Amino acid sequence: MRPPGRRGVPTAPPALLLLLPLLLPLLVPLLGALRGVGAGPGAPAELRVRVRLPDGQVTEESLQADSDADSISLELRKPDGTLVSFIADFKKDVKIFRALILGELEKGQSQFQALCFVTRLHHNEIIPSEAMAKLRQKNPQAVRQAEEVRGLEHLHMDVAVNFSQGGLLSPHLHNVCAEATDSIYTRQEDVRFWLEQGVDSSVFEALPEASEPMHCGQVADGGKPCVCRYGLSLAWYPCLLKYCHSRDRPAPYKCGIRSCQKSYTFDFYVPQKQLCLWDEEP
Q1: What are phi and psi of 274, to 5 degrees?
Q2: Staple partner for 51: which of 122, 158, 166, 235, CB 3.0–4.6 Å?
Q3: What residues are paired with 264 via a beta bridge?
């Protein structure tokens, strides 16, 4: 009697079954490069690329596009172990940066510290989610370097985001910032924009102003409040669509992407320097 299952599908010989545990570690990296290819309608499409960081080191970056949610996410791990995530929520005009920073146990820190920075998304900053979902990795071993290095953006984060109400700002916030419930920051100018879009004011809370607005790197006492600075970089992301012209086509057509690199620094109030030990005086 034929065993249950699909007819006509041959079963693997015993020798191959014994080899599978040895082959899996080799197959997983190959399969990882193909995620998103042939995915069903509405399923997030994932692209994995090797990218060169500003300091010259190479890391792997994961980009996902969800055309149904109209969002794009990016994730990479820095050489020091920090995990950087970025979400572009086109529906809500919100972008979210998250950093999971490994703690220094010898300095009394926990295993990791999480920070979230939320700012307004301008739709010309990155390609649309539907275009991102169509991208495919042609050469998984190639190391990508951005064609354009966009200028450093310095942001003063003077408002806290209430995590319990954060879903009113973006449905992605609860998932992305779950480890940073007390460390989610934004700016007054972005808050004004979102309030005009109908976001409830209960989402936001003004941060206290430091009596002596000194950077944490200038403060000796670990228990004193100060202004912390954190920097991160998106090493490679598709920032623009390229259009080509042809005699056979009356209108320009999409024929590729332009890649960018963008760095940010965030200044924000912390109640004690102990929460900002990476910010040392140069």
Answers
A1: -55, -25
A2: 235
A3: 153, 232
pLDDT at 245 over 70: yes
> Closest Cα partner for 160 from 196, 117, 189, 121?
117
Q: For residue 174, what are the CA distances in angstroms to 84, 106, 187, 234?
A: 16, 31, 19, 22
114 phi, psi to nearest 5 deg: -110, 135
CA 261 to chain centre: 13
- pLDDT tens digit sequence for 5-20: 333 333 344 333 333 3
Task: Report the distance separating Cα 156 and Cα 189, nearest Å.
Answer: 10
What is the share, in percent, of the chain residues with pLDDT greater than 90?
55
Q: Does the pLDDT value for residue 107 go beyond 70?
A: no
Instruction: Tell whether pTM > 0.85.
Output: no
Secondary structure of the chain in HEC code, one letter for each residue: CCCCCCCCCCCCCHHHHHHHHHHHHHHHHHHHCCCCCCCCCCCCEEEEEEEECCCCCEEEEEEEEECCCCEEEEEEECCCCCEEEEEEECCCCEEEEEEEEECCHHHCCCCEEEEEEEEECCCCCCCCHHHHCCCCCCCCCCEECCCEECCCEEEEECEEECHHHHHHCCCCHHHHCHHHCCCEEECHHHHHHHHHCCCCHHHEEECCCCCCCCEHHHCCCCCCCEEEEEEEEEEEEEEEEEEEEECCEEEEEEEEEEEEEEEEEEEEEECCHHHHCCCCCC
Token pair of 235 as six digits: 């090493």
Structure tokens at 36: 């998103």
Length of the chain: 282
